Amino acid sequence: MLLAARSVQQLLRPCPFSTALIPFVRPCHAHRVAFSSATVLSASGQPRPWTGLQSWRVAPANEDRVWGPHGPSPPPTPPLEPDLTTMTAASLAECAALVLSTSDPLAKSTLSHLAYTRWCRREILVGTASPPHRPARPDRPLLVPPKEVPSHKSSGLPLNAYMLHNLAHVELNAIDLAWDTVVRFSPLRDELGDEFFADFAHVADDESRHFAWCSQRLNELGFRYGDMPAHNFLWRECEKSSEDVAARLAVIPLVQEARGLDAGPRLVQKLVGFGDHRTSHIVAKIAEEELAHVAVHDRLACIVAMEREFRIEQLISLPLIALCSDELGTTSRVAALLLIG
Ligand SMILES: [Fe+2]
C-alpha cells in the first residue's frame, strides 16, 4: 500500500544542508552509519563525505576475486590483464554496454573487473554509449514474479545454497544496475562529473567480486547459479528510474542495499546455525563492503539533490514513491525519501 503524501509529510523534518526535508523514521543500521556521516557539515556549510569514502575511492582495483581458505584472495594465476574483448570498448560507457550485453554471469563478472581495471589505469575516459534495452541474462535461472520464487523447502536446495543463490542473484542485478547507470547517464558527464562514473564503475567491480565469491561457494557445495528460479523484481523496479538520475540514485540503495544490509546479520546467524561458517564469512564480508556503497550512493544523491536544488516536497509529488511497487513495503519507501534528504 502506498504511503499517503500527508502521512509522509508528518514524518519529515528540515534537512540541515538543503531545503529538503528528511524523515524522522529510523533508517536501517547501514543508513544510520552512512547517512549520519554524509550529513556532517563542513565549515563552508557543505556536507562532508563519509570518512571512509576517500580511501575507498583511491584504493587500487581489488584483485581478491576468489574466496581462499582464509578469506578473500587473489586467483592462483596472475591477475587478469584487460583482454581483447574489453579493448574493443573505447570508453567506460562502451565497457558498460559490453558488460550489459554479456549474458554469461561469470563473463559479466570478469569483464566488469577488466573494465574497472582499465579505468583505474587511466586507459579510458567516460565517453558515451547507448544501453541495451535490458541486460543480457543466461537461460537459467528462470526469472519469475517474486511470489513464484520457490521457498527454501520447495527449492530442493539446502539452506546455505538457497541463501547463496538468492544473494548471487542480487549481486548479478547489482552489477548490471551499476553499469546501466554508467552508460545510461553518460551523456550527463559534464553535469555529473567523472567521480560519479568512477564510483559506479567501482561499485560494479565490487559487486562482480561478490558474485564471483557466491558462485564459487555454490560450486563448492555442488550447485551453481541458475539451479532454481529467481525473481524479476529488482530489474523491473530499476527500469522505472531509467529516465532520471535523481530517481535512480534513490532507487538503487533502496532496492538492493537497504533491504539486503538489514538482512545481512540475520543471514550470517542463520548460516552459523546451519553450521556453514565458510559461507557465513562470505556473507559477512559482502555485507561489510556494501556499507561503502550505501555511503557512496547517499553522498552522490545528496550532491545531485543540491545541484538540482531538488526539494523533497517535489520529490513526494513526483512519481518516486510510485517507483517503488507495493512489494517493497512502506518502510523501504520511506527509506527512499531519506536518501534524498
Ligand atoms: Fe554486493
Automatic annotation (TrEMBL):
SUPFAM superfamilies named among the record's database cross-references: Ferritin-like (SSF47240)
Region (Disordered): 130-149
Pfam family, one: DUF455
Classification via InterPro entries: DUF455, Ferritin-like_SF
UniProt superkingdom: Eukaryota
Protein name stated in the entry: DUF455 family protein
Organism in which the protein naturally occurs: Musa troglodytarum
